[in-house]
Amino acid sequence: MTETGNLKRTSLFERHEAIGAKLVEFGGWEMPLAYAEGTVAEHRACRHGAVVFDVSHLGTVSIQGPDAHRSLQEALTNDLGKIRPGRAQYTHLLDDDGSVLDDIIVWWRSEEVFDVMPNASNTDRVLAAIGGEDVTATRAILAIQGPEARERLSTVSREAAQVKRFDVASVVIDGLEVTVAGTGYTGEDGVEIAVRNDAAVDLFDRILGAGITPAGLGARDTLRLEAGLPLHGHELGAGITPLQAGLSWVVGWDKPSFRGRNALLAERAAGPRRRLVGMKGRTRQPLRDGATLLRGDVAVGVTTSGNFSPMLGVGIALGFLDADSGISEGDHVTVDVRGRSLDADLVPLPFWPPRS
Predict the structure, then answer these.
(1) Coil, strand, or helix at residue 69?
(2) Is the pTM of this model over 0.70?
(3) Which CATH architecture has domain 2-56+136-226?
(4) Binning pLDDT at 50, 70 and 90, where does residue 192 land?
(5) Residue of 285, 353, 259, 308 lying closest to 47 (CA atoms)
(6) The CATH fold of domain 273-356
(7) DSSP category for residue 355
(8) What are 62-88's pLDDT values in tens digits?
(9) How far apart are CA 246 and CA 304, in angstroms?
């Protein structure tokens, strides 16, 4: 990792430039938005083949020692008692009011060793909550995703390609030890590989040589939206609780304590005041975030993420619908996108693959 001005750069920055990436600021980092073929082509490559993302901007907080497990249990919502060393778990860090300060993946690497993976802009917040050491600057993370991800990756490392969904393992590739997790953010199968900075370019090039397409943050966002996956700052964040986002399964309700627990118990008893829903437009016009949802002339909610779906060929969105709106799946709403009224149907998540 390097820094230029106020922006950080991953160890792959020069490689991204060399292969024609369009680079943008994201979460304090200068990251590839898309490459020469563009976001839609990269999106479809992930749905039909395999792509690789540089996601080194995500944080890594290493927490180790005999108190590591207890510290994480007391700080985060999910229950580590549900898993074991060698597994990964999705979890939340909450504020006192139950809203989501960050959504996190925990890689439980060995008995007393955990890698906690916060969003790019939240690493300091998570570090303050759980302790440990910020090791973000020491490694790169490559996410290989798609229905052919494992088959193509196996030509680089059969062992890495065999790491199962939500497993975590140390793997040696040509004498280099890396950490591989069966995690991702696209709705497709695949793995994420943490590799030392000084070896990242070589591994990236070998992955490209295996016929895996480079993809940027543009496709990462449209893919996660089609998969109905939340993004911090949109479907999660200040004032938004796991219950409102439809993520009650992320909460270890039987744990005796974690920050925000009492607020969540009260909300569960009363019922959340709003709920996250999926909306499918009727035209190719993209739906956008921050748009008012209308039922007739009455405002009943707001969109939180929206775009064009390359797989469905129409606009889609996630948003919050008031609990007392009286609207349910199968109904339709009007989405006020910058003064333009667009009809949309409430549909089950994920958008892709569509339910039969």
Answers:
(1) helix
(2) yes
(3) 2-Layer Sandwich (3.30)
(4) very high
(5) 353
(6) Elongation Factor Tu (Ef-tu); domain 3 (2.40.30)
(7) P
(8) 999 999 999 999 999 999 999 999 999
(9) 14
